[in-house]
């Protein structure tokens, strides 16, 4: 089984749907997910450069709607999950569990009531930033500002923890990471980051950062975005990053966050400033460039890490964290003033 903590496929699905394709998920992505053995897929909702500003919330809602449309068109194959119980029900029924995540809080702006509304819409994980600055914090592309979280960002973390929304630190600036670590009271994760000890890139995490998040009950999803791994990245480089994280943290704190983006980048032709890569640099890894390639990964992980550690990294670490961190029930839609009747799962330490 494979549990993938980050795949931007919704960007491709919406882009193709807007150009008249009825079911791009079923035509393109569902067969690839099945071929890769994916049983749980985190779906980030990301604000591309051309939608920053007032268009961000509109774009966010359209992406969220696409996720539900995928589940509506393929009810026997996938389900959008909101709680630990729904996650287990989807897995038991042989369906791929889809979990919605907010990648960057541009849609929230400066009003945390939007965060509550997005939780009601199904968002269960959120990062404060992409590489750029938001109203809540600085991304890793804002190194010169030296920013920690804003006051609104501090309030947002508290609100996420109250709701039962998992905080994601991938893309957050290093000062912002340590500020969040100071104030966080629940486990947080890095959904798609690799190891700076092996590749000195601002999107990778230092050993100190990795140790800190693992100590709080979180985990890191190892990223397969080529420039974060090596000059000429290979599957073996990916395994090196996974092995380093496992040696440092233990296999139960390491997962998969491959961040497959080559096909999406080529097919959607986004305005892609701020990627922190050199012009023309290949972002895919041969042999690990799409969900279908995940089928070969468990055997490679087992050869490198041993079978027990491989099972944890391939799926069980992430599934275990989701079972502990997701709310036990969905919010009461009729409750006034944003009052929630969901109960967050127990803290994992």
What is the strand and helix layout of this fold?
Blueprint: E1 2-4, H1 9-18, H2 24-36, E2 38-46, H3 55-73, E3 78-80, H4 84-92, E4 96-103, H5 113-120, E5 123-127, H6 151-163, E6 166-168, H7 174-183, H8 207-215, E7 220-222, H9 235-249, E8 254-256, H10 262-268, H11 297-305, H12 307-325
Helix pairs in contact: 1-3, 4-12, 11-12
Write structural notes for this entry:
With 349 residues, the protein is α/β, with parallel strands linked by helices. It has one domain (2-333): Alpha-Beta Barrel (TIM Barrel). 40% of the residues lie in helices and 11% in strands. It has helices at residues 9-18, 24-36, 55-73, 84-92, 113-120, 151-163, 174-183, 207-215, 235-249, 262-268, 297-305, 307-325; strands at 2-4, 38-46, 78-80, 96-103, 123-127, 166-168, 220-222, 254-256. Strands 1, 2, 3, 4, 5 and 6 form a six-stranded parallel β-sheet that branches. It has a two-stranded parallel ribbon with strand order 7-8. Helix 9 (235-249) links the parallel strand 7 and strand 8 (254-256). Helix 11 packs across helix 12 (307-325). Residues 335-349 have low confidence and may be disordered.
């Amino acid at each position: 089984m494979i549990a993938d903590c980050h795949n931007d496929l919704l960007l491709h699905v919406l882009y193709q749907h807007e150009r008249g394709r009825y079911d791009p998920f079923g035509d393109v992505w569902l067969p690839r997910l099945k071929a890769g053995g994916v049983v749980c897929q985190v779906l980030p909702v990301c604000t591309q450069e051309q939608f920053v500003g007032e268009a961000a919330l509109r774009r966010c809602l359209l992406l969220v709607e696409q996720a539900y449309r995928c589940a509506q068109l393929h009810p026997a194959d996938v389900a959008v999950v909101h709680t630990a119980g729904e996650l287990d029900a989807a897995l038991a029924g042989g369906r791929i569990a889809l979990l919605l995540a907010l990648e960057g809080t541009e849609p929230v702006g400066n009003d945390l009531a939007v965060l509550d509304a997005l939780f009601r819409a199904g968002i269960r994980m959120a990062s404060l930033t992409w590489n750029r600055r938001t109203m809540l914090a600085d991304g890793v592309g804002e190194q010169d500002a030296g920013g920690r979280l804003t006051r609104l960002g501090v309030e947002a973390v508290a609100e996420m923890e109250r709701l039962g929304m998992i905080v994601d630190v991938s893309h957050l600036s290093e000062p912002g990471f340590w500020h969040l670590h100071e104030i966080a009271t629940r486990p947080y994760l890095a959904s798609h980051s690799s190891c700076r000890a092996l590749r000195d890139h601002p999107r990778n995490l230092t050993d100190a950062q990795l140790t800190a998040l693992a100590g709080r009950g979180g985990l890191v999803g190892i990223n397969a975005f080529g420039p974060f791994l090596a000059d000429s990245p290979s599957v073996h480089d990916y395994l090196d990053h996974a092995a380093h994280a496992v040696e440092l943290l233990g296999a139960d704190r390491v997962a998969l966050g491959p961040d497959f983006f080559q096909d999406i980048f080529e097919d959607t032709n986004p305005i892609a400033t701020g990627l922190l890569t050199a012009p023309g640099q290949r972002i895919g890894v041969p042999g690990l460039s799409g969900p279908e390639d995940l089928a070969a990964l468990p055997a490679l992980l087992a050869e490198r890490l041993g079978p027990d550690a491989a099972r944890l990294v391939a799926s069980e670490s992430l599934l275990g964290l989701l079972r502990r961190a997701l709310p036990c029930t969905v919010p009461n839609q009729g409750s006034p003033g944003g009052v929630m009747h969901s109960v967050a799962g127990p803290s994992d330490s």
